[in-house]
Amino acid sequence: MSAFASSERAEKSGIALEAQQKIYEKYDKNLAGDILQWVQGITGQSFDTNGDAENFVRVFQDGSLLCNLANALKPGSVKKVNTSAMAFKKMENISFFLKFAEEFVQKSELFQTVDLYEGQDPNAVLICLASLARKAEKFGRDGLGPKEAQGDRREWTDEQLKATSNRSAVNSAFYRLEIKNFAFFLI
């Protein structure tokens, strides 16, 4: 299924193939193209911004561009970007980026190294980068997508809080009365 998977892995079939196809169906190539253009604008590096899954994974696969993105957003976040062609060094780059992203992206929006390196789930990578792009304004950079909500703190007066607690007591008394009547009805 994936053009990125290691040649040592067996071709997926059956349920594994169906699961992989469902993962790839979620992938949004238009959003991926937008993310690639955003990364290009932030890092100043030149690369193909075609949103196809194969290109998306290929561009980020060695992790160096992700490290450069992290350093462009927050200088010094990734101390050393590996340039070695060895697989574990490329995966280490991806891990460096993920450590950076943990500070700004919800845990549920992070991806695993294998999702990118072996192309197992490019959509997970896309979700992570889209989330980071929404937060770019925190770094003084142009963002992508809807602006993050700031929250709306509300101050309640003692009078308002008391009114709410009284309503709660009335509601729970009514609920107990309904339960008793229902139990009586069953008998």
Automatic annotation (TrEMBL):
Q: Name one Pfam family in it.
A: CH
SUPFAM superfamilies in alphabetical order? Calponin-homology domain, CH-domain
A GO BP entry: actin filament organization
Q: Which residues form the signal peptide?
A: none
Q: Name one GO molecular function term.
A: actin filament binding
What InterPro entries does UniProt report for this protein, alphabetically?
A: Calponin-like, CH_dom, CH_dom_sf, SM22_calponin
> What organism is listed for this UniProt entry?
Caenorhabditis japonica
Cellular component per GO, a single term: actin cytoskeleton
Q: Which domain of life is it from?
A: Eukaryota
Residue intervals of the Calponin-homology (CH) domain: 29-137
Q: Could you identify this protein by its name?
A: Calponin-homology (CH) domain-containing protein
